[in-house]
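Thread amino acids onto this structure.
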């Protein structure tokens, strides 16, 4: 099976293939206008046809079959540049087609491999150009005619636009992948809720809002009762399913502005903006009842489950998010120690508070 990296490499090779086909076809037109004026020999025409029509397919086949397609494609790009250097000398330095060829190839190499590939290609291009010039008897006819100008126009007009389109779609894809990565780095993989770090950021934001504007906010920490036994009795997969069910239940039972998150294992948290302790306790009790009354059947097995919840509101005595979390945690611990399946509310930073009994069991 192909890995994501291999898939990316082959996409790159296919992209360069399409660009090479277009670039060499348009470039061949410009070169042909000069060969025509120079009454070039048949073998030069044959070489032009071969390099324009056969080389792109050969280069593509070589890269696709290579163990390292990207490395082979870079070699092909350097070969392209060397061929370009030879054509500049064979055109006897006809100014417009030569400058166009060199500029388009430099642009190509720069966008495919940066300065390194560009400078390597340019060095080889100059060397091959000088060697071909020497073999060709140092012939020089730099003046471009109207025919050369017209033959260069398609490349001048079409190639840069095509190149920009390719680069634009690449940039779009990178932006989209960055967004996905950002989303993944904030999300808990099993439940789809935000993960601990992201959740703590949300709690931190509410704590700051309280410091600045005294806006009320509350935290609820909750934990599945006896989750270890559920895992042991029904299996880890059933435990995972239960964690996902709880996440759905939280998403359904809360407002859009509330932030539920998985803090780790079977512990979850909820940040409730603009919510005082009384309202947060009512929310916690509603969630507890929802959990208690959702009794899923898994493969014919009935899994009863409940949760315990600790609630804490932000206040003057809370120095930072850590202290706020500790208050909610103390309340959760109290709900557990007083029999589970209940809501416990922190009354102050020193851990006092009240616990509501379950209405149904
Ligand atoms: N299925 C599943 N289990 C997990 C996952 N992460 C942690 N656990 C298990 O969750 C259990 C958590 O148990 P504890 O929180 O220690 O205790 P508990 O059994 O829930 O008991 P109380 O919290 O005291 O009611 C452990 O057995 C972990 O192995 C997970 O992603 N999936």
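Threaded sequence (361 positions):
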């Amino acid at each position: 099976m192909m890995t994501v990296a291999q898939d990316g490499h082959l996409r790159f090779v296919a992209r360069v293939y399409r660009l090479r086909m277009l670039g060499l076809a348009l470039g061949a037109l410009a070169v042909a206008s000069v060969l025509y004026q120079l009454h070039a020999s048949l073998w030069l025409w044959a070489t032009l046809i071969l390099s324009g029509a056969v080389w792109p397919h050969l280069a593509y086949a070589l890269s696709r079959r290579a163990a390292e397609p990207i490395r082979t494609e870079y070699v092909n790009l350097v070969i392209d540049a060397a061929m370009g250097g030879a054509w500049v000398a064979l055109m006897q330095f006809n100014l417009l087609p030569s400058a166009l060829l060199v500029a388009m190839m430099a642009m190509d190499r720069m966008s495919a491999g940066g300065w390194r590939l560009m400078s390597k290609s340019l060095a080889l291009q100059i060397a091959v150009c000088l060697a071909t010039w020497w073999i060709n008897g140092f012939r020089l006819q730099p003046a471009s005619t109207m025919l050369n100008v017209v033959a260069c126009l398609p490349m001048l007009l079409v190639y840069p636009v095509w190149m920009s389109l390719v680069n634009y779609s690449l940039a779009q894809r990178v932006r989209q992948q960055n967004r996905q990565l950002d989303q993944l780095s904030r999300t808990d993989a099993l439940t789809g809720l935000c993960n601990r770090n992201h959740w703590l950021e949300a709690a931190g934001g509410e704590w700051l809002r309280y410091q600045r504007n005294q806006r009320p906010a509350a935290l609820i920490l909750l934990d599945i009762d006896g989750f270890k036994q559920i895992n042991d009795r029904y299996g880890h997969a059933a435990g995972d399913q239960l964690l996902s069910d709880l996440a759905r239940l939280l998403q359904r039972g809360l407002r859009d502005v509330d932030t539920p998150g998985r803090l780790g294992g079977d512990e979850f948290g909820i940040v409730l903006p603009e919510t005082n302790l009384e309202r947060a306790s009512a929310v916690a009790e509603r969630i507890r009842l929802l959990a208690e009354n959702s009794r899923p059947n898994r493969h014919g097995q009935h899994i009863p489950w409940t949760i315990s919840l600790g609630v804490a509101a932000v206040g003057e005595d809370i120095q930072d998010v850590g202290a706020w979390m500790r208050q909610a945690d103390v309340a959760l611990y109290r709900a557990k120690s007083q029999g589970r399946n209940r809501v416990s509310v922190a009354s102050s930073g020193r851990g006092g508070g009240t616990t509501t009994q379950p209405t149904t069991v």
